[in-house]
User: What shape does this take?
Amino acid sequence: MYYIISRRTIPSLFVPFAKIIEQPQAHLVLEVHLLWTVMTLSAEAPPKATHTPSLPPTHTVTLTVNGTETQLQLAPWTSLLDALREYMDLTGTKKGCDHGQCGACTVLVDGKRINACLTLAIMQEGKQITTIEGIAQTCTDAPDGLHPIQKAFIDYDAFQCGYCTPGQICSAVGLLNEGKAKTTADIRELMSGNICRCGAYTNIVQAIEEVINQQTV
Amino acid sequence: MSQVIGKPINRVDGRDKVTGKAKYAAEFQVPGLAYGYVVSGTIAKGKITRIDTSEALSLDGVLQVFTHENRPRLAWFDISYKDQDAPPGSPFRPLQDATIKYSGQPIALVVAETFEVARYAASLIRVEYKEEPHETSLEANLHRARPQKHGVADLLKPPPPKPKGDFNTVYEESPVKMYGRYSHAAEHHNPMELFASTVVYEKGGKKPKLTIYDKTQGVTNSILYVSQVFDIPFKNIRVLSPYMGGGFGSGLRPQYQLFMAVMASLELKRSVRVTLTRQQMFTFGHRPATVQNVAISASADGAMNALYHDARGETSRFEDYTEIVTNWGGMLYPPENVTQDYKLVPLDVYTPLDMRAPGGVTGISALEIAVDELAYELGMDPLELRLKNYTDLDHNSQKPFSSKELRACFQQGAERFGWSKRQFEPRSMRKGHNLIGWGMATGIWEANQMPARAEAALLVNGKLWVSSATADIGTGTYTIMTQIAADALGVPMEDVLFKLGDSDFPVAPISGGSWTAATVGMAVHSACEAVGKSLLELAKKLAGSPFKGAKWEDIEFADRQLRLKREPTTAVSLQTLVDLNGGKAVRETSTGLPNALKQKDYARATHSAAFVEVMVDEDLGTVKVTRAVSAIAAGRILNPKTARSQILGGMVWGISKALHEESILDHNVGRFMNHNLAEYHVSVNADIHDLDVIFVEENDTIVNPLGIKGVGEIGIVAMPAAVANAIFHATGKRVRDLPITLDRLI
Assistant: This one.
């Protein structure tokens, strides 16, 4: 399988470069790329057949999610995303790619937005983790049990299938916490880590603007 | 009587979706659940000569590894594997034998106690292959193009009509003409939710009982497939899909994780979940790559007189996937001399699959760029050329349209966009080092209605329960069906509970082709009417009933009451009526059928006009769609809020198709190489700027009594050509191949 992975990896890395090669300055990029590929190759050489597979031991991991401490017995390789979804039944946090490419798994850790698929559960001990299930608790004014962002998402129809929605909402709350977004273009840029395949982007931006405007009034 | 139909009402499932309560296929927890992980093949064609699972099986927690060597004996005939959207041919059977038909083919399933163990064990499976030469390039195999095989699919996807007139002669002799060759990349649907099936296993009598949470655009399609392939009676299977994280066509056929999860569950007598990875989302159906040729000629005044449109699409070696690519010109334009042709090139890939506006957006993207080219040959404004060739007749069938407010789309769209200020010459507008271009295009999509069933029940507490085995793939089905039911029996929306996505409910077809609103809407309407008629009968039984002689036409439902139309104060509450029913709900199931007799003399379609502004960086070739207006004629709009969202989504898809989306095949290995969301580009928030939607008024009494035409596809159809035409206007460079990546511009 290691061999298989490298066979799969090499050509896929080449493809985006194929077009660049046609340009004059491209040789430098290509050389770095080749070097990297060779390093990857040697790192992924097929293992000896005598290798006996074994599983890593599990550990007691204490996670604080939405204000509640939970003790779990987890292997070190369990991502925060899988811990939430498969071990805590907090399925509001979504898996869309498992590679940090889509943003569906966005949660807040100590108020900052992160991709839960790109961090291991064991690394998040002692942190305050907030998921969509607890997002309303993070604001003092949550009429009807909804965070203003959640309410604005409903009013502006900022979703269709709803699968990217929890990640969009956590990301939007993280964006509000950052306080960096001053313009519509800022919001668009700073929300671009969350893909919405249904294409609700304009409504998402309007919903977030609505909440920002409420806050500044 | 319309109280809520036509109002911009928030989604009834909105709260569940923004709080994380909405559960998708991989999110139903059951005790003792085992996890399946699929192993994908790495060659495009050949045979597995050896598959070593011993290391994987030696891991603690691994329950079984399924391969072609230990796959249970299942249904033999192809017919058992055919689903509602199966094209002619022999459907793919996972783990059937050692044969590899395409790259990424599932070759094993590891089942373990946890997801992480299954994933690790999958990496320990050693496979040896005997490779055979493969062919995955459409361009290199165009000479093998052949007509499609015919089957039931032809009913919905008819082959092109026979040529009419004499294209060759008229084209040759015409003073103005254009010809272009257009190629489109393959694309993958990539809904955000990964394909997943959770199979809950229970011991039954002779056969086990399965409850299956499946990612599907039709639970009836999944139950049919599982029942046939695994020989389990319908009554032992229940398929549920209350929420679906995006479909766009990908869920129109049962995908292989369903087969894998059911097989493992039956063999291990346990509940099993199989979820695909994002990489594996590129290992089943996709929008086929196509090559098209379009030639149009006109007289000097711009009247089109001849049209040629051919398309070559890829398909797999085992099924003939077809779509309507070349028929649209004959539906939009009036030339007398028309040749349309469509052929397939079988390759060593998985069978393509309907993807948002299948065929339509492909064919119209080429056709509408071609019309723009003709406009520039004529020196005529592109909108003026379309108005010059405007027709109320579908020239393929020679039938009039049941309604066609495309002219209003042109007028209102052009006005909102400011089209009249456009300068004809390319490269005539700029802002700093950015070139600015304005382009437009026309769109068309079918307005179909299928048969479907629904149940309505006025419960003893006065609430209205309505159900149908349809799907809400983000389209708003929950909301619009609630609106239709509420209006049909004159109750507020909060009194209605509409349920879907359960194979125990009355049967409905797969949700696709923009037909769900009309199809299920008419079934719901009909079931509610049936309840209404029963309520009238109950009303007649009241002591001294004022309704004794009343006919159905004489009454109406409003304010939770049944009342006389001519004398609304003569009324009885629905609660009073249901109380007369001996403690039982008033329950009716009914079928919504298209009125073929009424429809047969008409062509039925939705139309659109898209206007787009692009900004192209002259040095870098980067393209930004700075604003776009889509004017839509799609019959009666049930909910302008959810319908607008569908059109916005379609516009985003159109921009994405025009500029980003491309599944890149490396023909050396025969594989889609950019199989992840970092390298398969879809539009993100920063790519999308000002989008505007106009619904023009369109009344249609032919399509169905509610006047519904559907809006799922019409939003995308015109957009890619409008973007391409705007890029031409900005740069003077005509790019006929999609996507228009910057290497094609500089």
Observations:
- Confidence is low (pLDDT under 50) at residues 1-49 of chain A.
- The CA atoms of residues 27 and 164 of chain A lie 39 Å apart.
- Chain A touches chain B through 75 residues (CB under 8 Å).
